Amino acid sequence: MGMKSRSNRINRDASAEEGPGGRKKSGQGIVRSGAVALLAVVCLGLALYQGLDLLADPLAGGRPTYQPSIRVEDRQGRLLREFLSSRETRSQWIALNQMSPHVVGAALAAEDRRFFSHPGLDPLALVRAVWMNIEAGRVVSGASTITMQLARVLRPGPRTWRRKAAEALMALRIEKSHSKREILEEYLNRVPCGNLVHGLPAASRLYLDKSPQNLTPAESAFLMSLPQAPSLLNPYKDPGPALARRNRILDRMADLGLLDGDAARRARAEPLSLKAARSRFRAPHFALFIRSLLPDPAPGRVRTTLDLELQSQIERLVNRTVAESGDKGISQAAVVVMDHRTREVLAWVGSADFFDPRDGQNDGVRALRQPGSAVKPLTYAAAFDNGLNPATMIEDGPVDFGLSRGVYSPRNYDGRFRGEVSLRTALASSLNVPAVKVLSKVGLTKVHGLMKAAGLDSLVQEPEFYGLGLTLGCGEVSLLELANAYATLASGGIHRPPVLFHTALEPKKTPEETRVFSSQAAYLATDVLGDDAARASGFGRDSLLALPFPAAAKTGTSKNFRDNWTVGYTTSVVVAVWAGNFDASPMGRVSGITGAGPLWRKVTRLCAAYYPAGRFERPAGMTEMDVCTETGLRAGPDCPTRRTEIFMETCTPPGYCLHHGPVSARNAVSKPAVGRLAILSPRTGEQYLFDPGIETGFQNLGLAAQVPEGLECLVWFVNGREVARLKADLKPLPEIFTPLKSGLMTVRLDGIAGGRRTASDQVSVQVH
Questions:
Q1: 302 with 502: CB under 8 angstroms?
Q2: Which of 291, 364, 403, 764 qualifies as a FRET site for 727, CA 20 to 30 Å off?
Q3: Which of 436, 440, 398, 401 is CA-nearest to residue 416?
Q4: Measured between alpha carbons, how far is 767 from 699 in angstroms, rounded to an integer?
Q5: Positions of E strands within 182-314
Q6: What span, in angstroms and rounded, lies between the C-alpha atoms of 120 and 177?
Q7: Are 90 and 189 in contact (CB under 8 A)?
Q8: Fold: same for 317-610 and 662-767
Q9: CATH superfamily of 662-767
Q10: CATH number listed for the domain at residues 317-610
Q11: Which value, in Å, is the radius of gyration of the alpha carbons in the chain?
Q12: Residue 390: is the preceding peptide bond cis (ω within 30°)?
């Protein structure tokens, strides 16, 4: 027997012995068929006497028992993963007017051609079925209408003649209270189609990966072939029987005038584009996280912010980069991409391969790890809002901070010290000692609070728990948090929570916004992080962080080379990359620039193709001026080197550089001076104790000096910042008080005469 004959036999047998649920009937004789016919007559009689009003309407009260599966989609509606309902089914409810009209035609041709004219039972089909069963000597036709099949789905049970009678009664009751279109919509959304699929919409998505609104006549007929015998007609086992039944349905559609002859012939010739049976599971870490956020019961369709096309390309980049990094001791990497203007997450890659049985299902986007220097920009943004500027000079040298648990002596990652450097160089080149000093100046509690406000929610301990190492990344955060903190800088200092859902699950609310940094301070941090010349001291010119378009970026390496980070942003997106090992084993002395840096560069360049990068817009309230590169003050005519620096209008250098100028001029001014300018208090080498139990305003350092004649003005500086300016001829000279700051305090006194600095003295003290 050939394949065609076998298919016809299977379909004929299926039509006779299997109903929509795929259950075989036991052999039933002529008597039982007659009983069914008799019961049908009784039911019709009951309908005439309005006895059906005594029966409960199975569709009353909406659809409280219907539970859709959950389709998690990307921003374009492309499926990421479908999670089964609590009943372990795939199902999606679609209104009838959102289905292709060919679906309705195929349903009528396949199951119930007189659906719109009968009251729930089809007398003509019933007589035909009785006659066929008598002729065959067994049940070969059941005469079930669409409404009866809906009743069977609503109240499933064993296939007995009593059950058949109950379905007939229920069909009449449904028809009495609901329109034909309502019944048809209920049926099409509930009918079993095999492979745990209930309803034509879910079947269309699974078998064809297509919206039911766009089904062709051939596709509609194919899907309507499945309910008759879902297990026997399973297209994943053998599409032949389902295709044979599809063609018979198409012929019947033509006979009923639902499809013209030419269209039917074209439909019969249309090949079946059956999608692979494997479970679709794209962006797996992201999809699983989305599922964990959904309420119960969850909506049947959830559209997220993810860009699947971008996601797929980044997944390939991560996989390939990790495969090529084995010699560096890197076995995993994670990437998150965020549109910082909207905070929408565009890509989320939690590991190099989710299906790696060893540790692929660990999610590096959400894991808490030490970020190293990647958090420094937040410290400097806080400093810019607290009176410092990128030109401020700071000493990069050995320093000991006395703490309650001992002495803290930060060191740079390369073990070298660079002497006086600007904050621009210190941040761009990722120098540790200046960063700790800046944190000490601004205040640990303040910086800790700003880091949390910017998005680092995992810094839940008290500030003292982290200490001055906070700015070097000793507190654990997630990659998603770090990306959002950088989004705060990229968006002008405003924090908003990440956005994961493209369509809100609840009524839209105004996004929560918090001003963390001024727009000017955020811009200064951005400008420094994008300055290739400023980071030359730490990374060299034209490093991996230098791109052909404006981009601000920072690297981070945790202690013992256990974690690599590179985070940066363009005018469109933030790209955050982590590289390392999930078991926290150290890498081979690989830093953020050589570990995570290459992947960050590839991903950022890829993102620019989808989300173009422009130039960062400078906010109002900014100004430019030339500064002396040695002092950070306004450049004078004799400063040997200078650069143009950007400042907040409210925080420009305190004066002109007086360090450079003709020697003869300085000597001429200093000759009249009698004695020597000297700081009397404090004295170099003195140590002070800062008591955290006393308010800061009551713990001050007194400044006193010996002043020679001939000076016009005195200027006091503490740690490079001007704290007082007064006339030199005041009698007596008032004592100046400045707040104690933990760490090394450098006090300098400049004497001014003739508009130039003619004398100076400097001392350093340690505050514990």
A1: no
A2: 764
A3: 398
A4: 11
A5: 192-194, 197-198, 301-303
A6: 11
A7: no
A8: no
A9: Immunoglobulins (2.60.40.10)
A10: 3.40.710.10
A11: 39
A12: no
The DSSP result for 150-215, as a single string, is HHHHHS-----HHHHHHHHHHHHHHHHHS-HHHHHHHHHHHSEEETTEESHHHHIIIII---GGG-
Give per-residue pLDDT as tens, 27-86: 445 445 555 554 555 555 555 435 566 678 888 876 756 788 899 999 999 999 989 887
Helix (H, G, I), strand (E, B) or coil at 265: helix
Q: Quick check: helix, strand or coil at residue 87? A: coil
Task: Summarize pLDDT for 8-34 with one digit per residue, the tens.
Answer: 333 333 333 333 333 344 444 544 555
Check the CA dihedral 663-664-669-671 and report its sign: positive
Task: Read off the pLDDT of residues 656-696 as tens digits, 9 standing for 90 and up.
Answer: 887 776 543 333 333 343 368 888 888 777 777 766 555 55
Cβ(567)–Cβ(577) below 8 Å: yes
List the one residue out of 185, 254, 258, 247 whose CA is nearest residue 222: 247
CATH, range 3-269: 1.10.3810.10
Q: What are phi and psi of 486, to 5 degrees?
A: -70, -35
**Measured between alpha carbons, how far is 531 from 730 in angstroms, rounded to an integer?**
45
Give dist(CA 34, CA 139) in Å, integer: 11
Distance CA(469)–CA(432), nearest Å, equals 9
Active site residues: 111, 373
Please write the tens of the pLDDT for every residue from 237-252: 999 999 999 999 999 9
Q: Where are the domains of the chain?
A: 3-269, 317-610, 662-767
Could you tell me if 417 and 398 are in contact, meaning their C-beta atoms sit under 8 angstroms apart?
A: yes
Distances (CA, A) of 556 to 479, 536, 561, 585: 12, 16, 10, 17
Q: Has residue 652 got a pLDDT over 80?
A: yes
Question: In the structure encoding, which two tokens stand for residue 181, read together?
Answer: 């279109």
Give residue 40's pLDDT.
Answer: 56
Distance of CA 43 to the CA centre of its chain: 58
Give the total residue count for the chain: 768
406 neighbors 453 (Cβ within 8 angstroms): no
Between the two ends of the chain, the Cα-to-Cα distance in Å is 97
- pLDDT-wise least confident of 183-187, 543-547, 588-592, 611-615: 588-592
Model confidence pLDDT, tens digit, residues 97-146: 999 999 999 999 999 999 999 988 887 767 666 666 566 655 545 678 99
